[in-house]
Specification:
The complex is a heterodimer.
Chain A lengths: L1 E4 L2 H7 L5 E3 L7 H11 L19 E5 L2 E2 L11 H4 L5 E5 L5
Parallel strand pairs in A: 1-5
Antiparallel strand pairs in A: 1-2, 3-4, 3-5
Chain B lengths: L2 E8 L2 E8 L6 E6 L4 E8 L2 E11 L3 E7 L7 E2 L12 E3 L5 E3 L4 E7 L7 E6 L2 E5 L7 E2 L19 E7 L7 E6 L2 E5 L7 E2 L21 E6 L7 E5 L3 E4 L7 E2 L12 E3 L7 E3 L17 E4 L7 E3 L17 E3 L7 E4 L5 E4 L7 E4 L5 E9 L1
Antiparallel strand pairs in B: 1-2, 1-30, 2-3, 4-5, 5-6, 6-7, 8-9, 10-11, 11-12, 12-13, 14-15, 15-16, 16-17, 18-19, 19-20, 20-21, 22-23, 23-24, 24-25, 26-27, 27-28, 28-29
Classes of the chains: A alpha+beta, B mainly beta.
């Protein structure tokens, strides 16, 4: 199972309180995780990536294992620790404030 | 006994204010969608408990929310707004071609007769329609064919912000875009014509009377007289007596003819309201006095309505979607400010009191009169 931590606004939108766990078919990549996430929580379509181009929204980043994976290929394998569920994939909104 | 429900969209969520017909004591619920920008929420005239809300965020994009119980509970519906075909370009701020890009929904206008049909005005300017309660959205693309390559953004963005449905003709719709102007369809959106004859924009356009390009801020209609339209333009308050074919200025004795909203009294089709703002570079009331101006003569002659409003040190703005009327016997008038106040008058504007003072900046105000 893949663990995903959503930013607060998207947890509210998806009606989840904590991290979500997803079953991902095949290799765990950004794309396969997001497709599983959006299939399970259709209200998240368009909030993390564009619905047509699948390009990541500008103010959204992907972190895992203390690394910024935002600029990795969406088809690159996620770290083993994420694929095995030992570490979560963090979906993060850019910092707001002064 | 009748009730009133005021729907308030703010920069940080939606609020629902309810009162009985006396409009003295108010219940306030919210924030709904706390932290998100709510550009607009509006109820269906055919089913007042059916509400639609535009929820957006610079981080997470656009959502459309729907309520079937008057705003007590909400469900996200379709949020995919894809331009029809290859959208091409419009003009950017610097006059160079800029590709059409969806940014947000500014205005939602439910059908007058069908709760499942709703129109959405978006930025970059286009008109979309849903006939399945907001689940899916289709563009009415021929609008952008009316010289869309010449449209340019106003300072707030190139937004389709006004949708007026003609109660006497289901195929006639007026829309307004900043900064393109007013357009009308007489065949339910198949074809459109610009409706800007008589508008003059000498400080904004190289051709002051251009067919398109005018920065229209809001148009309003009384449902008993759909051929008469009122307009608050960037500068100038205007009136059309021929369904938008031509416009005449009615600014008269206003202290400033710049402003954003304009509304018509629920029962008096020649009584209209505006909120004068100092200028396009000073978005606050003249002299620090927040005054609504009312004309009972369909324009030209205006009176300041001041009782209960702040008349010193007030520097808020009232945005284009942030004023509305109820349909009770003593017509209620409501407006919200960028300072977070929502003011109400239960006597057609003669006196005012705040319903609430400290909301986030108010973007939109709509009113439903309930049995």
């Amino acid at each position: 199972m893949i663990r995903v931590i959503l930013p607060a606004h998207l947890r509210t939108l998806a009606h989840v309180d904590d991290e979500v766990t997803l079953h991902v078919e095949g290799q765990a990549t950004q794309r396969s995780v997001l497709e599983a996430l959006e299939a399970h929580y259709p209200m998240l379509r368009g909030t993390i990536r564009d619905q047509v181009t699948h390009q990541r929204r500008a103010f959204v980043r992907f972190f895992a294992c203390e690394e910024d994976l935002s600029h990795e290929s969406p088809d690159a394998p996620l770290p083993d620790a994420v694929a095995m569920g030992a570490e979560p994939l963090l979906i993060v909104g850019a910092m707001a404030g002064g | 006994m009748s009730k009133v429900r005021v729907l308030v969209g703010t920069r940080k969520g939606a609020f629902v204010l309810t009162s009985d017909a006396k409009r003295k004591r108010w219940d306030i619920s919210g924030p709904h969608f706390g932290g998100w920008e709510i550009y607009h929420l509006k109820g269906s005239p055919a089913d007042p408990n059916r509400l639609y809300a535009s929820q957006s965020s610079g981080w997470f994009g656009q959502q459309i929310q729907r309520s079937k119980d008057g705003g007590q509970t909400w469900e996200p519906v379709g949020n995919q707004f894809v331009y029809d075909g290859v959208p091409g370009t419009h003009q950017g701020y610097d006059g160079t071609p800029h590709p059409w890009e969806f940014k947000r929904v500014w205005h939602l206008e439910p059908s007058l007769t069908d709760p499942d049909t709703v129109y959405a005005g978006i930025e970059d300017a286009a008109l979309f329609r849903s006939i399945d309660g907001g689940q899916t959205w289709q563009e009415l693309p021929s609008l952008r064919g009316v010289k869309g390559h010449l449209w340019q953004p106003g300072a707030g963005g190139m937004c389709l912000h006004t949708i007026v449905l003609d109660p006497s003709d289901p195929e006639r719709i007026y829309i307004a875009i900043s900064a393109a102007g007013v357009f009308r369809t007489d065949d339910a959106g198949t074809t459109w014509r610009p409706m800007n004859r008589g508008l003059k924009s000498p400080d904004e356009l190289p051709d002051p009377q251009a067919e398109v390009g005018h920065c229209v801020h809001r148009i309003a209609m009384h449902r008993s007289r759909p051929g008469v339209l009122f307009m608050q333009k960037h500068w100038d308050v205007m009136r059309s007596d021929d369904a938008g074919e031509s416009w005449q200025e009615i600014s008269g004795n206003l202290p400033s003819d710049f402003g954003f909203p304009i509304v018509v009294h629920a029962h008096e089709p020649d009584t209209i309201y505006v909120v004068p703002i100092t200028s396009d570079s000073e978005h606050y009331p003249p002299d620090g006095k927040l005054r609504v101006y009312r004309s009972r003569t369909g324009g030209h002659e205006w009176e300041a309505l001041t009782k209960g409003l702040p008349l010193r040190d007030c520097y808020v703005n009232v945005l284009r979607d942030a004023m509305a009327v109820d349909a009770l016997d003593g017509c209620g008038v409501y407006f919200g400010t960028t300072g977070g106040q929502v003011y109400a008058s239960a006597d057609a504007g003669d006196s005012w009191a705040p319903i609430v003072r400290d909301l986030p900046a108010v973007v939109s105000v709509e009113v439903e009169t309930l049995p």
